[in-house]
Amino acid sequence: MAAEKNVGLVLLNSSLSPFGQRCSIALAEKGLPHEYVEEDLAAKSDLLLRSNPIYKQVPVLLHDGRTIIESLIILQYLDEAFPDTRPLLPTDPYERAQARFWADYVDKKVYGCGSRLYMIKGEPQVPANIEMAGILKTLEGELGEKEFFGGEHGFGFLDIALVPFSTWFESFDKFWGVGVAEVAPKLAAWAARCMERESVSKNVFSPEKVSDFIGEMRKDLGIE
Amino acid sequence: MSEPVKLLGSFGSPFTHRAEAALRLKGVAYEFIQEDLGNKSELLLRHNPVHKKVPLLLHGDRAVAESLVIVEYVDEAFDGPPLLPSDPLARAAARFWAQFAVDRCSRTLFKALWTPDGEARRGLVAETKENLALMEARLDGRRFFGGDQVGYLDVAASGLAWLPVLEELAGVERSMMGEEEFPALCRWRGEYTSHEAVKACLPSRDQIVAFYAGMKERLVLHARSMQK
């Protein structure tokens, strides 16, 4: 195999992190060679702590030693710093605004509600379930009949923002009774289409792994 | 392309201000539509069904919601002085610090203001000051976060300009952003609020007071319900 041209990229990540997975997918979609460093979140490296002293979190992208943090910011950076690679965001300002709006929605709502679901069991789950079902339906409404959220642009920024959470869908059903296939079938179909892309299947956690991980965490927290 | 531009907002709200400041800085002609947040218009609900919030930008038939998304849209869709720098790394930094200013400064500060006295409030005040210190360092002797010109990060941080009035309303004796501890931020606040384009859309003290009037109980409840 020919040696990959070094473009000075290092990704500090944890394969667990859906935010980190976004970056891995983006780098793969753009065909950008990079050094990958798997961080042990229980024993963070000096490099991570130095690069992201404020949040001390992954993912962190280093480009020629300079730091870029926050997954959606990293994705936009990759578009802007590597304009000759496959763009993640469309060129039209309005379409870009829509992609940013919905990616922000994913962060606030899917991740926001999802993390709250983790912590609860029994009765209190019901309102959160209804909320999550509503969130998934709303996303499905935005997807409509499109193959990907990127529409004519194809698999893009918003798809990448959401897809790491799609492997949580089975767990939503198993632990909290939110059946994505019933509640948002088009979204479930979209998730399946995404998994056919190597950039996605190689970088997201399988539904089984997510389910095991959540099961373990809930046991540790004394929820199950 | 000269389709009409409308901004649905609530004058006095720092979120609305971000969107309006962007339009003013870019030199875009627009119509401001004041929304009654207790009785939202059909226009707002139709075009922002997801969040039902202001600010909402209508550019022709295109609706853009979320204040910072609106600011970037205005930067990209219209000609005029750029709000974001051109260098990709500088843009990433501006976006990061904008998010920080909104989530870790303005939001935390809001919680601190409306949380009753006690240990929780002391913790929030300490956290706010820690985060303000990072913004202070970010200014690094410059007039604005954007350098010589007001930019994206200045607009994102503009909520800090409201602080003196809000602290007065909340009955705070010593400001969280005092001049001794935060000389650069206090100077920045003066520069920002006296900037020609910004001044035109900055609410007066009375307008801010009016916006927050009668809201105190609701603000206290809201602060309590806000997640970390």
UniProtKB/TrEMBL annotation, chain A:
Residues 92-213 form the GST C-terminal domain. GO terms for biological process: glutathione metabolic process. Pfam families: GST_C_2, GST_N_3. It is an enzyme of class 2 (transferase). The keyword DNA-binding does not apply. One of its GO terms (molecular function) is glutathione transferase activity. Residues 7-86 form the GST N-terminal domain. It is found in: Cytoplasm, Cytosol. Its main location: cytoplasm. SUPFAM superfamilies: GST C-terminal domain-like, Thioredoxin-like. It catalyses: RX + glutathione = an S-substituted glutathione + a halide anion + H(+). CDD domains: GST_C_Tau (cd03185), GST_N_Tau (cd03058). Its EC number is 2.5.1.18. Is involved in the conjugation of reduced glutathione to a wide number of exogenous and endogenous hydrophobic electrophiles. Belongs to the GST superfamily. PANTHER family: GLUTATHIONE S-TRANSFERASE GSTU1-RELATED, GLUTATHIONE S-TRANSFERASE, GST, SUPERFAMILY, GST DOMAIN CONTAINING. This is Glutathione S-transferase.
UniProtKB/TrEMBL annotation, chain B:
Keywords: Transferase. The keyword Transferase applies. It comes from the Eukaryota. GO terms for cellular component: cytoplasm. Its EC number is 2.5.1.18. The keyword Disulfide bond does not apply. GO terms for molecular function: glutathione transferase activity. Residues 87-212 form the GST C-terminal domain. One of its GO terms (biological process) is glutathione metabolic process. Residues 3-82 form the GST N-terminal domain. It catalyses: RX + glutathione = an S-substituted glutathione + a halide anion + H(+). PANTHER family: GLUTATHIONE S-TRANSFERASE, GST, SUPERFAMILY, GST DOMAIN CONTAINING, GLUTATHIONE TRANSFERASE. Belongs to the GST superfamily. This is glutathione transferase.
